[in-house]
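S.,

Sequence below, as promised.
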Amino acid sequence: MLLRSISAFLLVFATLSAHAAAPRTVFVQLFEWPWREIARECETYLGPAGFSAVQVSPPHEHIHWKNNPWWERYQVVSYKLDSRSGTEAEFKDMVKRCQQAGVDVYVDAVLNHTTGIPGGTGSGGSDFTHYNYPGIYSYNDFHHCNRNGNNDIRNFQDRYELQNCELLDLADLATESPYVQNVLANYLNSLLDMGVAGFRIDAAKHILASDIGEILSKLKRSAYIYQEIIYDSQGPVQYAEYLPNGDVMAYDYARVLAHGFQGQDPKALLNIASQFPASHESIVFVTNHDLERTNDQGILSYNNHQRQNYLLAQIFMLAWPYGYPQLYSGYKFNNFDDGPPVDANLRTLGILDNQDLCVSPWTCEHREASVAAMVEFRNQTDKAFGATNWWDNGKDAVAFSRGSFGFVAINYSNQTLSRSFSTSMADGVYCNILDENYELTQKSCSQGIKVKNGSVTLSLPPHSAVALLKKTSTKIFKK
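The prediction came back faster than expected:
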């Protein structure tokens, strides 16, 4: 069995310090989580498990729409921090508590647009119309491309439309305007004043790269920047344009990764970095809030029949030396628009019960025991950021070493895989950190795996993985 239960996992981590691993090399998107729950998660799980940061949903005031769909959060009414995730005071408290737990906060920043509806009252009580946001923006602060009868983008191969027309009727900000740039920079600076460490720039390819650069030049201190570029190799926008501003989300990484597992193409995994920017410039992920809603069978998801491959793909991503991995945690949904559960005041309901266990419909997939183990694996193998001893069977099993620090073998077939593998690890007896009996706090397991003359013999059940990690404190307890 590859995974332990969440409850058992939390017991394992309850006694760890908040600074258990250095460096921290993995972050997580807690999609639609309330601020109070993120603060608690930083303290009880993310910090002890060695996560570097948490990406939070857009904190600005947003629209309310029928049945409260998830995309409400991406329609800006004002830059007041009053959203369904909580108040400004709760946001500040979250940032402070996460920092104290050793976890940075990255904010999903919506700079391209405001709202896509005629008007209404936002989550913080502000009234607005499509092109009029009192005290913030008026008609001339937006692009009006005068194409297609409604200003909407129709031709995504046309750079002018892509960056000057409206994405899904969302009022498109004139980001070349010094006034608009200052408003946006002031919003980001207010978040920096609260201790936010970085920003995901939403819909970045719909903003001229130089406009983003001008906005970022007005920040009062440095911040980690990564930009959402839903890449089209035949389109007018290239990753390279945006790299001077910060990192980019390697969007098709998820599709190549899924193909490697679903299409029985291990060479796609071996060469996965070849079509994206350099490792230090790329965010990589198995899925996110957009991808899991596409119903695209070429994407792995925790919410569909591909869950086994999804979990194994996460193990590969966290072990393979490429990119800055972003894990994802959301909720179960029945259709594209479904938002999180909310109360009578339209605030998001809680996620964790009194025992810190996940409440449906939240999935808490970032708490799978294999994730915690592999976050430690990536943190501890960071010093050997390269792969050796690659092996594959040409279809549905791979193995490789991370120098002398670690070794991973993944069997995503329907049959048991038994064979010997070459490793670069010193001779000795190691724990499989993915085994259900492995105790991460004690670095101990009930059955050891022997490496002799650099070789290890394994028998991997179907849809399972083994990860060996160099640890001087590993203990083997014989039953």
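The CA atoms of residues 148 and 250 lie 31 Å apart.

Coffee later?
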